[in-house]
Amino acid sequence: MFRERSIWISPAQIIPSDFDTAVNTAMDAIDKVRDTSTSHERCSIIEVMGRDAGYLALWCGIANGAERILMPEEHGFDEKALIEDILENKKTR
Hints:
The chain is mostly helical. 55% of the residues lie in helices and 0% in strands.
């Protein structure tokens, strides 16, 4: 006879520690760049590691309040429209 068991999975088992380290390292760097960009009233484009996978960019972008997040999985985005949007937002501030 088999006994029913519950399986508990902690967040540490779902998110590998190297991913957590990468996110925290990138967030620290982004915080420093954002402080400088804000004080000089500049726009910054940040690139994080993850050549073929955008999940690191997504996590860092959401955590740091990015206005736009571009990922390798996203195909066919219009660079010209993105630049025009950035310039338009700069005019309204």
